[in-house]
Amino acid sequence: MKARDIINILEKKFPKINAEEWDNIGLLIGDYDKEVKKIQFSLDATLESIENAISEKVDMLITHHPIIFKAIKDITEQNILGKKIRNLIKNDINVYSIHTNLDSSIEGLNDYVLKKIGISEYKILDFDEEKNCGIGRIFKLNEEKNLKKFIEELKLKLKILNLRVISNDLNKKIKKVALINGSAMNYWKKAKKEKVDLFITGDVSYHDALDALENGLSVIDFGHYESEYFFYEILIEELKDNNLEFLVFNREPIFKFY
What we know:
This is Transcriptional regulator. It holds the Pfam family DUF34_NIF3. Belongs to the GTP cyclohydrolase I type 2/NIF3 family. InterPro entries: DUF34/NIF3, DUF34/NIF3_sf. The protein folds into two domains: 1-100 and 227-246, 3-Layer(aba) Sandwich (Udp-n-acetylmuramoylalanyl-d-glutamate--2,6- Diaminopimelate Ligase, Chain: A, domain 1); 101-225, 3-Layer(aba) Sandwich (Udp-n-acetylmuramoylalanyl-d-glutamate--2,6- Diaminopimelate Ligase, Chain: A, domain 1). Helix content is 31%, strand content 25%. It has helices at residues 3-13, 47-55, 80-90, 100-104, 109-116, 147-158, 188-193, 206-214, 231-239; strands at 26-29, 38-42, 60-63, 94-97, 123-128, 133-146, 164-166, 173-183, 198-202, 218-221, 245-248. By secondary structure, it is α/β, with parallel strands linked by helices.
């Protein structure tokens, strides 16, 4: 199966137009006409994931986070990105990234996180009516729960050992919640305007956490890696009937808790 046919299947469901303007998605390295039999899914194109793809003789590496984000001034063996790109080209491995278009599309990654925690009804926080997609999901629990109980349930459903919690009261009652996978603390004020009791995202900084807390909004940081590493489950479901071989390789989360 040619790479372009695989890409067409994915982009029919998760169109490139649904990506944020700043994003860099699509086929970033390789050949649309390359014959693909074996695909590796990795959240990031790390040195380890590329080495694994080479050793497994993979034809195509599909990542969530783009290997190339900004302009590149050189591609040399002496810098990490250059080394990665050279190794991929030398081994004829395509690299395709599906990022914020997967996040924001209907039945994409944000919806999939909700599915994992048992939520089926929601509204989109930052809705683009023309594209029928958008960043963030707002939902209501079936019944009020105290924050501490919700935290334990969230950890169990998403198989996360530790969460960072920003709140003055773990016994606070919550009903209305906003959730954005990855890194989206810049949306907390928009979530607050929707009168949510809790905002869930990753990569929460100290100052954003303090601002949200002083404005009366409780926040859970459920991790960037932890909220996105399973993106491949969505894509395999879309590609499973095409006689392709799949493998998954992710390095361990960067952050360790002791």
